[in-house]
Amino acid sequence: MQLYRLRFNSFTFMTVIALVFVGVFLFQFIPPLFAEAGPMWYWMQTYWFPDVLIQSLILVIGTLFLSSLIGVSLAYWMSFYRIPLARFWDIILVMPLAIPTYLLGYIYVDLFTGAWYQPYLVITNLFGAIVLFSLTLYPYIYLAIRSFLSKQPQTMFASAQSLGANSMTMFWKVIFPLLRPALIGAMVLVTMEVLNDYGLVQYFGLRVYATTIFQTWFNGNDLNTAVRFSIQLIAFIILILWIEASLRKSFKYSYSTTQIKPLMKKVLPRSTAWLFYMVASFTLILALVIPIFQLLWWLPNVPSQIYARDFWDGLFSTVIMAFYPTIIIIVLALMIINFQRIMPKPWKKWIQRILTLGYALPGAVIAVGMILMWVPIDRMIADFFNTNAMIVTGSLLLLTMALVLRFFAVGSNIIEGTYHKIGMKYTLASHTLKKGYLQTLVAVDLPLISHGVIAASLIVMVDLFKELPLTLILRPFNFQTLATYLYQYAGDEQVNLASPMALMLITLTAAAVTFASDMMLKVNTYES
């Protein structure tokens, strides 16, 4: 049945607008390639670039290794053994996602400053950054592997056991080859998060791409050099995505039977129990317990002026900048995904790849592109109306568009996955009854995918609550969120005064993570 005939409708309009917007954004990085480079570019290429490349690679590779070691180990134990209070562990092991990495860095640096053990525990270096990134990003690995292993059939592992394979042999010969596609996808996500961070790497004084782009732009006042480093980073990310796609193509598995017996968990041996509780407890103590207790310790000594002047202002701004972009992302995702569902198949993958490219780009790169894109437009508007006001770049509109571009992929992927579970049968039935596209979306699709829409909204909000680089660059004058207040107080060596903002940020993010987990469980109960 040919469902789509290239007629103009709201889905077509929004998809075309989104494609044009992303295309114009990406085009901004082409002219600087042909512009004459300044002396700063040549100096940084000679003396700065080698450090940037080496430190970026070490940071990414080290974080991938340590976060994968923690995430895969915990997911394996949770999937194959009957852990007491398994539901509690499933929730608490994901909670480090609620703590921004830069906040963890601020807290630990303050804890170590002036202490007798400070000379022996210096964390403001690459190794310290790798540990802190791993503590907050391992849940991405854990969730991917946990979800993958929970869907594997028992017969596969029973066959390996019948052939005499012990636990270690089974893991390396059977389980690890199977989970490589899921692991590669999660590792790419962790890589993007590491490259996007600015707060921690700047606080630790690391020479990576994010700090280099900021310094050449703001300290050196050389936007052209910042753009060139952004282009290098884009090329690096494209290479990573190409490697991931190539590896995924080489790992394809399918079940040989439709009779799939669920995975049966084994009794937890004492030696394995000791190892699980040690790894899980040590990880959570470092990632959750110590930071939260330190923030609570600082809280009573925070002056009331902080609440009156900064706390409520930051909370209001944070909620606003999480709410409006989330609404826009969800509406856009629903319309664009429906356009993809009812259009000829060969175009689907290209639309998805182009529109979700923003999540692969660090915030500093997106900020550079948005400035290049909108400053000339703002100048034309100002000249036309004979005013000095910068309508777009001087308002929250620019920041909102940048956040939508950055996090559209998060909401889109979850909603698309939910649509895959319900299939096309209900949509086709609605069209058979002469219902329009928009009417079908509102009356038929939304009730069926409501849990997925809510989960997507909450996950997007988690990222928006913690977002720092884009907000720092593109915010209007005197606009502060909880994250920017944390950055400001940490820069002034007064992170203890920001404990109310930090605790509220953790509370908001933890609540969103918890509710999103519940919604995703309900999404997974749908049948395709």
What does this structure look like?
This protein is mainly α. It has a domain at 52-255: MetI-like (MetI-like fold, Orthogonal Bundle), CATH 1.10.3720. Helix content is 74%, strand content 0%. It has 23 helices and no strands. The longest helix has 38 residues, at 304-341. The two termini are 19 Å apart.
Oligomer status: single chain
- The fraction of residues assigned to DSSP E strands is under 5%
Any idea of the CATH class of one domain? Mainly Alpha
Q: What is the helix fraction of residues, given as a range? A: over 70%
Order of helices and strands: HHHHHHHHHHHHHHHHHHHHHHH
Could you describe the largest sheet, including whether it forms a barrel? none
CATH topology of one domain: MetI-like fold
C-alpha end-to-end distance = 19 Å
**Which consecutive residue ranges, at least 5 long each, have pLDDT under 50?**
none
Can you name the CATH architecture of one domain? Answer: Orthogonal Bundle
Mean pLDDT: 81
* Secondary structural class: mainly alpha
Number of strands: 0
Shape: globular
Total helical elements: 23
Radius of gyration: 24 Å
- CATH-wise, what's the superfamily of one domain? MetI-like
